[in-house]
Amino acid sequence: MISTADEILLRRAIGLAARAVTLGDAPYGSLLAGPDGTVLAEAHNTVRRDNDITAHPELKLARWAARELDPRTAAGTTLYTSCQPCGMCGGAIVRSGLGRVVYALSTEQLVEINPESGAWPTPPQAGPALFDEARVPIEDHGRRRAT
Ligand SMILES: [Zn+2]
Question: Residue limits of the CMP/dCMP-type deaminase domain (predicted)?
Answer without folding.
Answer: 4-121
